[in-house]
Specification:
Elements lengths: L1 H11 L1 H5 L5 E2 L6 E2 L16 E4 L5 E5 L2 E8 L6 E5 L3 E9 L3 E5 L2 E10 L2 E4 L6 E4 L2 E4 L2 E4 L5 E4 L2 E5 L2 E4 L5 E2 L4 E6 L4 E4 L4 E5 L2 E6 L2 E4 L3 E4 L3 E4 L2 E4 L4 E4 L4 E4 L1 E6 L2 E4 L3 E3 L4 E6 L2 E3 L2 E5 L1 E4 L2 E4 L6 E4 L4 E4 L2 E4 L5 E4 L2 E5 L2 E4 L5 E2 L4 E6 L4 E4 L4 E5 L2 E6 L2 E4 L3 E4 L3 E4 L2 E4 L4 E4 L4 E4 L1 E6 L2 E4 L3 E3 L4 E6 L2 E3 L2 E5 L1 E4 L2 E4 L6 E4 L4 E4 L2 E4 L5 E4 L2 E5 L2 E4 L5 E2 L4 E6 L4 E4 L4 E5 L3 E6 L2 E4 L3 E4 L3 E3 L4 E4 L2 E3 L6 E3 L2 E4 ...
Parallel strand pairs: 1-3, 2-4, 3-5, 4-6, 5-7, 6-8, 7-9, 8-10, 9-11, 9-12, 10-13, 11-14, 12-15, 13-16, 14-17, 15-18, 16-19, 17-20, 18-21, 19-22, 20-23, 21-24, 22-25, 23-26, 24-27, 25-28, 26-29, 27-30, 28-31, 29-32, 30-33, 31-34, 32-35, 33-36, 34-37, 35-38, 36-39, 37-40, 38-41, 39-42, ...
Antiparallel strand pairs: 84-88, 87-88, 89-91, 91-94, 92-93, 92-95, 95-96, 97-98, 98-99, 100-101, 101-104, 102-103, 102-105, 105-106
Length: about 950
């Protein structure tokens, strides 16, 4: 039993037994020389001794070199200082406890391991010391106060788990063979004094998982270093520099900078590498990230006047989720398949460039990223295989930012400040989704372009300047402003299925041409203004310029706009062409559809058109004016010549068309009297002049009810003579067509009803509104209208369109006569609710309210008059419902082309209106179906009927009524 207890006791004490007992101990509390044997209890230590300086008290022991098995320094109380200046050879170890101070002036530790829990002071101005194939483990404090070096070589190793402070300009230096300085997770290396301290020389490496704090002077890495979840900090005017050797970062490396944290070194990003430097951040003055992915969540500053830096090699990524400030004029390179991902703020404050080189490189500006050019000078994206992928924002506040490499912009935002420039120069630009931005400076493209899926330009302010080159693929929608600028450059669309569709504004101020060829197509659905002498040219293969039904193509300014022959370009117009001034010269096939209108005060030259399909409206002037037509004018039967009259002077007070060739009349001549003007019997208007000849006749004359006229076709002019003037309604506000913006708006329609006759007129007046869906509603029911000879009556209606109101064309009509029976006069005004903001037009109008005006509010699915719905029983429309069902006399009678058949229904009925000849044969059915109670009118087309007498028959329920109608051809 006793033997077993002894074995157990020996086992428990085994670790303590390894800590060998002192074989010789210091005995003099006054200190002295190590070599003085009288001061040791067992003589001067030898190579096999366990030497202990553990006597309490404060004293100093001095020695040159030390050769012993074990050294223990430090007692329970006081301060025990050992000053050594030679070779240190510990067969086993040296142990410095909390009260021990080891002052190391020179010499190397060549064997054993030193563990410090107290204080090591590295002193001396010139001496060197260090570890040679041995290990120094610091768990206390090391103060490097000398300018001498500390060497770590031949496998030497330093492990700092506590405080290592460099108070002057001492260096950590390697030499032959490897050496390692490990700053552990609990370790702090502090540079607290001035001057330069380096990690340099030989095979030394620095492994840092703790903190490096530079409070004064500079601490510089000239050897490889590894920083794992480390903290790097600098005080004001202090510098921590990665200079050479290579720096590797693993995990999150962070720290507040008040001074300069700087890298000019090659770098590797290890697992989950992240820079999270705050304050002044980290300055990157040169060299490259060569491996891994580095995330920045703090501040990186790209500084230096000439140095270049960047990322290179496959799978190398710099991802920015913080801030990058590029103040350097030096370049940032991205090449050999490396990438930059900006998800936050990247600011170029100087003239630094983003540059590619060998192989590919990518700069990705993500949807959350903003690249800002905030300083003067030129910055480019250029060189090598670099591409730029932008889904975020580019904001040029000063200077110029230029793309000389391919770029892709997906739902991106591009903005420029006043005098700043963002330029697409070379390399090719691709746009996907909506790319928008407010421009106060210059956004400019001189680059080839591709439109990707749903590509749209929505640039406001000064828009985008297109100075040269082509859209080569896809469909590009413009909903903002495009400016075609430059004195000589050409640009355009080319290749099959390439379309530029304008739903915003295009301003062509350049004298350079716009080409459309190889199957390219332009569709103008909004505003296209040509203010200079730029041409629209075809070339190889077909091309089309289509002015859509909602399009407005305006030629203004002096000069000639030419579409040149020689290509396959054709011109299609279904909208409005306005030649305000100058000359529009069309020398290629031209189709003017029935929905189209040509107007203005300039010259339209169609001499080179060849076959001209002229179905639409020709409307000289700009309410009114003179339009010169170079060539022949030959409208079809579907065409209209619109003449507006405000007085007796041709070209200024009434519209005139001046044809330099032959005018072959046809279609409808429609005359409108505006601005309260009422003609008199005998007034003449030379509406058309012809240099070669005027021939033919109009198919139809459209005049306001109450006005009669004849048309005389002479050799070189066409004259309209007023033969009858009765009650008239003339519009005097607005002066032109009002196009309300998509968000809604309001304006007033003002009319004058005049009685120019010598007899009093007592009749009715009422108003209607035809909506975009074709339905017509009464706005005001029949109201008395009494006018003495020469008397006029003014009326005003305030039109208020809500943003939700249906888009399209509305027609307002004010009638005079007997509602449902006959019409003595009608005033018509057409306005539009646009779908595109660019198409908004506000013609000349005073916007002043009138007494007793009617307020018409149009919203989604509802129209109110003076606040009451138009279907309300108490609304003005409910007044005057007929008390009996009857068929009124058709008018005009005799009928020359069309006739109106009016009837009243006291109650809703199944209605049939039919026309019979005198033999009783039914020749036409005008209406057939259910009709609500009220006053109604239907149109009868008599243009194809033979001259003769016919019977109009109304069947409404049990009622049968007839009226006679005479048709004259």
């Amino acid at each position: 039993m006793t033997r077993r207890l002894l074995v157990l006791l020996v086992t428990l004490l085994a670790p303590a037994a390894l800590a060998q007992p002192c074989t010789t101990s210091w005995t003099d509390a006054a200190g002295g020389a190590w070599a003085d044997g009288s001061k040791w209890d067992n003589g001067v230590p030898t190579a096999t001794s366990v030497a202990c300086i553990t006597l309490d008290g404060t004293y100093t022991v001095t020695v040159g070199g030390i050769t012993t098995d074990v050294l223990r320094l430090g007692a329970a109380s006081g301060t025990q200082t050992l000053v050594a200046g030679g070779t240190l050879a510990f067969s086993t170890s040296a142990e410095i406890s909390a009260n021990g101070v080891f002052e190391w002036t020179s010499g190397y530790m060549t064997s054993g391991t030193m563990t410090n829990s107290g204080l090591i002071r590295l002193t001396g101005s010139t001496g060197s010391r260090g570890v040679n194939g041995t290990t120094l483990r610091n768990q206390g404090t090391v103060e490097h106060s000398g300018t001498g070096l500390f060497y770590i070589y031949l496998g030497g190793r330093v492990e700092n788990t506590a405080e290592w402070t460099v108070t002057e300009a001492g260096d950590l230096v390697g030499s032959t063979g490897p050496g390692t300085f490990v700053n552990d997770v609990t370790g702090t290396l502090t540079k607290s004094g001035g001057g330069l301290s380096t990690v340099s020389g030989g095979g030394l490496t620095f492994d840092n998982a703790g903190a490096i704090d530079v409070q004064e002077g500079e601490f510089r890495f000239d050897r490889p270093s590894l920083h794992t979840d480390a903290t790097l900090t600098t005080a004001s005017e202090a510098v921590l520099r990665f200079n050479t050797g290579g720096a590797t970062f693993v995990g999150t490396v962070s720290g507040e900078q008040a001074g300069t944290l700087l890298t000019n070194d090659t770098m590797v990003a290890g697992a989950d590498a992240e820079w999270a430097f705050s304050g002044t951040g980290i300055e990157w003055t040169g060299n490259y990230l060569d491996a891994g992915t580095l995330l920045n969540s703090g501040l990186i500053r790209l500084t230096g006047s000439t140095g270049s830096r960047g990322v290179r090699n496959a799978d190398v990524v710099l991802r920015n989720e913080g801030t990058v400030e590029h103040s350097s004029t030096g370049a940032f390179y991205i090449y050999l398949a490396a990438a930059v991902e900006n998800a936050a703020v990247w600011t170029v404050t100087g003239a630094g460039d983003l540059i590619g080189s060998t192989g590919l490189g990518t700069f990705v500006n993500e949807s959350t990223g903003t690249l800002t050019k905030s300083g003067g000078g030129l910055s480019t994206v250029s060189g090598g295989g670099l591409t730029f992928d932008n889904a975020g924002a580019i904001d040029v506040q000063e200077g110029e930012f230029r793309f000389d490499r391919p770029s892709l912009h997906t739902d991106a935002t591009l903005t420029t400040a006043s005098e700043a420039v963002l330029r697409f120069n070379t390399g090719g630009a691709t746009f996907v989704g909506t790319v928008s931005g407010e421009q106060a400076g210059t956004l400019l493209t001189n680059d080839t372009m591709v439109a990707g899926a749903d590509a749209e330009w929505a640039f406001s302010g000064t828009g985008i300047e297109w100075t040269g080159n082509y859209l080569n693929a896809g469909t590009l929608l413009n909903s903002g402003l495009i400016r075609l600028t430059g004195s000589t450059g050409s640009r355009g669309v080319r290749n099959a299925d390439v379309v530029l569709r304008n739903e915003g504004t295009v301003e062509h101020s350049s004298t350079g041409a716009f080409y459309i060829y190889l199957g390219g197509r332009v569709e103008n659905a909004a505003v296209w203004n040509v203010t200079g002498a730029g041409d629209y040219l075809g070339s190889t293969g077909p091309g089309t310029f289509a002015n859509a039904i909602s399009g407005r193509l305006t030629k203004a300014g002096e000069g000639t706009l030419t579409q040149v022959t020689g290509g396959g370009l054709v011109f299609e117009n279904a909208g409005r062409i306005i030649v305000e001034s100058g000359e529009l010269d069309i020398n290629l096939p031209f189709t003017h559809a029935s929905t189209g209108a040509i107007s203005g005060n300039g010259t339209l030259d169609v001499l080179g058109v060849g076959a001209l399909m002229l179905d639409g409206i020709t409307k000289p002037g700009s309410s009114p004016g003179l339009l010169t037509w170079e060539g022949d004018w030959s409208p079809t039967a579907e065409a209209t010549l619109g003449i507006e009259v405000t007085g007796a002077t041709p070209g200024t007070e009434y519209s005139q068309l001046a044809v330099t060739g032959t005018a072959t009349l046809g279609g409808l001549l429609r005359m409108a009297f505006l601005d309260g003007y009422t003609p008199e019997v005998g007034d003449t208007y030379t509406i058309l002049t012809c240099v070669t000849a005027c021939t033919g006749e109009f198919d139809e004359l459209g005049l306001q009810p109450g006005i009669g006229a004849t048309v005389t076709v002479e050799a070189n002019e066409v004259v309209v003579t007023i033969t009858e003037v009765g009650l008239t309604i003339s519009r005097f506000q607005p002066a032109g067509q009002f196009i309300v913006a998509p968000e809604g708006g309001q304006f007033r329609i003002k009319t004058v009803t005049a009685n120019p006759t010598s007899a009093a007129i007592s009749t009715q007046t009422w108003t209607t509104l035809t909506q975009p869906d074709g339905s017509t509603i009464d706005l005001t029911g029949a109201q008395p209208l009494d006018l003495a000879p020469g008397e006029t009556s003014r009326n005003a209606t305030l039109i208020v369109l809500d943003g939700e109101a249906d888009a399209g064309f509305y027609t307002y009509r004010r009638y005079a006569g007997t509602q449902g029976v006959d019409t003595l006069a009608v005033g018509i005004y057409e306005f539009e609710k646009a779908t595109l903001a660019a198409r908004e037009e506000v013609p000349e109008t005073d916007f002043l309210a009138e007494p007793n005006e009617t307020v018409v509010e149009i919203t989604a699915g509802e129209v109110t008059v003076d606040g009451m719905p138009t279907d309300d029983e108490e609304s003005p429309l409910a007044a005057g419902l007929p008390t009996e069902t009857r068929l009124r006399a058709p008018y005009p009678n005799p009928a020359f082309g069309r006739a109106t058949v009016a009837f009243d229904l006291a109650v809703a009925s199944e209605v049939r209106v039919a026309l019979y000849d005198m033999t009783g044969r039914m020749v036409a059915v005008v209406a057939d179906g259910p009709v609500a109670a009220g006053r109604h009118a239907v149109q009868l087309d008599a243009s194809r009927l033979s001259t003769g007498v016919y019977v109009v028959r109304l069947t409404a329920g049990a009622l049968h009524a007839t009226q006679r109608l005479t048709v004259v051809r």
